[in-house]
Structure to design on (179 residues):
């Protein structure tokens, strides 16, 4: 099972375009440069999904989105999430002071990041309906049933912030995207 090397390259190119859009959206929101620290596309396993769900520890801020044939996970280490939420909502503060409930702000930031990918995916998939963000956990087994994983880690050195965006796709959706 799986897709050919040429189709994997095409899928990678499409998803990397979305990752680049994510970095651009973050730069606009925070007014600092964001870089791709890691970008990978490949087959997934339950172990890889469990590692992804536990990344950044128990106080990480995570938002899950679903679409027909796929899912998105946006994860922020606690400090990065607090700082980014503060900058997004209070005029570019440099500290995490003052953010009492970052959840709604991080959900909106996550939505913006997912839409950066959706813009790239919609070229090949047409209209895509994505669920609202959910902060509660999603079972690793559910996500592992989606066989293709795209992992993007972004970093803003100026803020000492990082985050991860993961896209998990059913094989049929990955194949459609790959051409």
């Amino acid at each position: 099972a799986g897709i050919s090397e040429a189709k994997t390259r095409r899928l990678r190119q499409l998803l990397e375009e979305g990752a680049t859009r994510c970095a651009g959206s973050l730069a606009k929101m925070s007014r600092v440069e964001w870089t791709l620290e890691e970008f990978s596309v490949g087959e997934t396993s339950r172990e890889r999904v469990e590692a992804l769900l536990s990344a950044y520890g128990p106080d990480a801020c995570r938002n899950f989105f679903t679409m027909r044939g796929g899912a998105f996970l946006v994860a922020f280490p606690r400090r990065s999430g607090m700082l980014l939420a503060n900058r997004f909502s209070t005029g570019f503060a440099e500290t995490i002071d003052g953010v009492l409930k970052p959840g709604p702000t991080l959900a909106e930031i996550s939505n913006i990041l997912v839409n950066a990918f959706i813009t790239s995916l919609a070229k090949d998939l047409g209209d895509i309906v994505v669920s609202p963000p959910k902060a509660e956990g999603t079972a690793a087994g559910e996500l592992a049933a989606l066989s293709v994983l795209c992992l993007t880690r972004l970093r803003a050195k100026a803020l000492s912030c990082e985050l991860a965006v993961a896209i998990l796709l059913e094989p049929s959706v990955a194949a459609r995207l790959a051409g």
Helices lie at 5-30, 46-54, 78-89, 103-125, 140-144, 171-178. The CA atoms of residues 118 and 128 lie 7 Å apart. DSSP finds six helices and five strands in the chain. Residues 92-96 have pLDDT under 50 and may be disordered.
